[in-house]
Please model this.
Amino acid sequence: MDAFTTLTGRVLVLPEKNIDTDQIIPARFLTATSFDGIGEGAFADWRFDAEGNPLDGCVLNEPRAADSPVLVAGHNFGCGSSREHAPRALLGFGFRVVISSEIADIFRSNSQNVGLLPVVLPEEQHLALMAMDGEELTVNLEACEVRTSTGERYPFEIDGFARHCLLEGMDRLDFLLSQEQHITNYEEHHERQDSAAAG
Amino acid sequence: MAPRTLFDKLWDAHLVQAETGDLPAVLYIDLHLVHEVTSPQGFDTLRARGLPVRRADRTLATLDHSTPTTPPDENGERRYYTPQARSQVEQLERNCAEFGVRLEGWDSAQRGIVHVMGPEIGATQPGMTVVCGDSHTATHGAFGALAFGIGTTEVGYVLATQCLMQRKPRSMRITVNGRLGPGVGAKDLILHIIHAIGVGGGTGHVIEYAGEAIEALSMEQRMTVCNMTIEAGARAGMIAPDEKTVEYLRGRPLSPEGRAFDRAAARWMALRSDAGARFDQEVAIDAADIAPTLTWGIDPGMSVPVTATVPAAGSAGVDRALAYMGLEGGKPLLGHPVDIVFVGSCTNGRISDLREAAEVLRDRTVSGGTRMLVVPGSEAVRRQAEAEGLHEVFLAAGAEWREPGCSMCLAMNGDLVPSGQTAVSTSNRNFEGRQGPGARTLLASPLTAAACAVAGKVIDPRGLTGATPREAA
Model:
């Protein structure tokens, strides 16, 4: 995955609460066996009518959407299905950061695993950003803060290891593979216990 | 040692490495369930790194999401909805063959929806950690397992290392006091709970369900409750094992046998929260407050008792939901016309669910303007239903009797609700477009769904089955 350090870019606001992963990527886009091109299905039913024509009035169809890497979305973003296709579709569409006052657990960890930075801010700061549609923000993962064009600074928390992986653009597989001896020890210990119990 | 919750015990028992300030815990996974939609890129990771599946014996695959529920054509060809659906299924068949993973595929008498099949064959056992690239993995918590959904990257990690890196979630106990009334079931209970705590109410938590009403539930009903835990935002829900858990598992194909079973059962029965164990949050629910419940809106928290009115318009969320659903705010749901009824899914596709629906349909017919689809959750459920003649009840009533799969729950396989039509569905999500673009979903119990199929509109199932409402309101 691509590393994320700091980014300055425009905000696109989707104010709806509880935007679920079926909205982000409808199930009919999940039949591929690779993630290539998954961005084309992002918010498909919000962007297009049944014939595939772009819907007027959908902010995601405005030309600026392609150049707005910061998605600010309503409370409890990414709820529902565990499909990793959701953060990947957002990345494919051009987002690099998603900011909300709450982000669903599985979506958050999936985002961290694929290089989309999830940022959770307190309600008041979230509300302030919801009013900044089209404005520029700086999201700095090294400093763990969001900075508005007027100089407001909103610090955010993120798990240290997730941050490290995002900053380095590395996945967790190498770390897990480095645990091999511990994993084997665990298995031997527990399987011995189980067979003793079974005997 | 301080009193521990059931969740604490499961967590502690699976730590390959405890978490530190710098590093999440390395958590061992006992059972990895796999299906065709969320696994192909996980296997690609192995291929790219030249790695084997570390524990094929702890990995179990099935075909459920993209599979047709209609029988093969006259040439024996499966009628896939799209060529991609076929290639996705064939990819899992190839991946399982290449990496030595057991696949309950087309030729298996055990194939089924992953969360119906796992418990049914005894793969899911108390005390285990269970993961799957599927959010409804929470279902398996009904056995006192720590079970949760993961993304595809993590599917790759578990295939390669049998481990995940996790921060420990907080804990919540939901105690359901009293007993459910007549005509009120596990689905009504969980819809009520989701409404009570909100669709994000469980975020960051693992939920343990407890109390008299939970203890009174059968294992299949407990699975329905745990299944929809994710709809309240919690990754995992669990219920402490008891005699019902042990009896359910006795004699299952993958359960221990003989004396080994008795020893396992003794271990399982010890898996419960200690007296005095502290939960980060406690919620109390009174079972007597719960009526047959349906969703009216576009998330599983937007539900009302069947006899109530839907919320009045006036807030952005409610207005959007009313507009999408074609409902008028402040009006009763009763009498709302129903185009389609779907009985099935990992939430309500088990034999007890089918029996519940069949009981309503026996000597009755599905309303002329309504289409009803009954999809068993697995081959075993199908066989049992057919042995009991339930399929004949459904067919005689005018319903369709299909082959097992996820089907109309998420409409990946071509079983979909046409745009603008209203479905009463026993599945788990009423999100916009979930059952097909423009589909309008009312989530309900199998009992309510079958009653609505007979009436062709939303009705109180207690009127049809003779069960009287608790309150004469």
In short: The helical segments of chain A are 21-24, 44-47, 85-93, 105-114, 123-130, 160-168, 173-177, 180-198. The radius of gyration of chain A is 19 Å.
